[in-house]
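Protein fold
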Amino acid sequence: MRVSVVGVGYVGLVVSACLAAWGHRVTGIEADGERLAALRRGELPFHEPGLAELVGAGNHEGRLDFGSDARLVSASDVVFIAVGTHDASGRWQTDSLVRALQQIVPLIRDDAALAIRSTLPPGVVRDVDGLVSRIRAAAGLPGISVLLNPEFTREGSAVGDFFRPDRVVIGVVRDPDEHGVSLVRALYQTVDAPIVVTSAANAAMIKLGSNLFLATKISFANELAGACEALGASIDEVVAGMAFDPRIGGSFMRPGVGFGGSCLPHQVRMTVLEMAALDVPMPQLAATDDTNQRQPHRFVAQLVAHLGGLARQRIGLLGLAFKPDTDDLREAPALTIAKLLLDEGATVVAYDPMERARRTAQSLLPRLRTRERTSEVFDNADAVGLVTEWPEFTALDWPALAERMRGRLVVDGRNALNPDDVASAGLTYVGFGRPVRSPERGAGVVELRGHDGTPVVPADHEIAAVS
């Protein structure tokens, strides 16, 4: 099948490369000349595991190419739109979507389907049908099938999420003879997952509701961790015990510095604002956003509590990207933390495995000092904090790194480190909702055990990555 994808940013490039890998003939259409030139050279504008290989293979085998001419959509059976729909201020914006529709809708074949991959504000969904119909009528053309096909991929695991989805959602805007649904179904014919065909409004809310629930679950874990600290409980053991209940589960229940990225923070905030305009209060989501924005401040408060102040202190930060396996700094807690520390007079030295993340952070915070090796973050540091749970940070040689430090404090902003490993190196470990570990005062973790004495871990206690 021939497919066009309008907008090859994060969402668009993933869908383009993955559909090409399934054997479809895909053309990515990109208006940004610099990005287009880079893609033609095989250079990706962001890091996503496995994606560069897929793009390279698609190019080499002739199944994937890129262009800027909107007329390229005229050869396609399915045309995806994957342009951005939020702005830098935390609000929805649909100008890019409207421009894309105005440009390409007159060029789409009468027997093709238009599938919107972009996340749409629910209030805009009802306007899409009328807009597309007016554009087609103005060009003297009949109507076409219009669908929503929201994405559920997470940065850092987007390729695997696309190939092995837990569901495919198709929302019908207009499709009288179900021709469009049949075309989109055919794209996913190799997928072993439920295909949910529903109204466009339902599809938009399935996407948005999923993200809002996950964000709420993370903020709940962060509030619960605060209660554990106050009451002397361990969040690890509390969550492990809760996770046996299948109604609760343990995924997305790891506390820390909060969620970031381009989806969860904006969508929580934008939903609260949009519903307020409709006189629909969303107090729980407002609290979710408030809790999340407080988490970087809690991280800094831990440093202040143990150091007695931040002026003239040297603080090392492990990680800058908002999550592992990406170089994305959008809404990254590390940037908020670094700015708070710098404003209090601290010297901040940071390392992230992604060179692009280091360069971007340096440009956004000129006073921040970045380094090219993990060990350099520890040199003469009064304290070191983990902000992004890259796997390499969870397997450090703590005794050797402790010797490079001036101070003795480690703050784990993701509860990703082994507290006893840190304490055994002569350092004080502080996490979120976990007992403090220090060389003088250990606090071992008590395992949950079954009646036969063997350790028991709930099946879903593995904490899922946040997108």
Q: What stands out?
A: The chain has two domains: 2-193, 227-430.
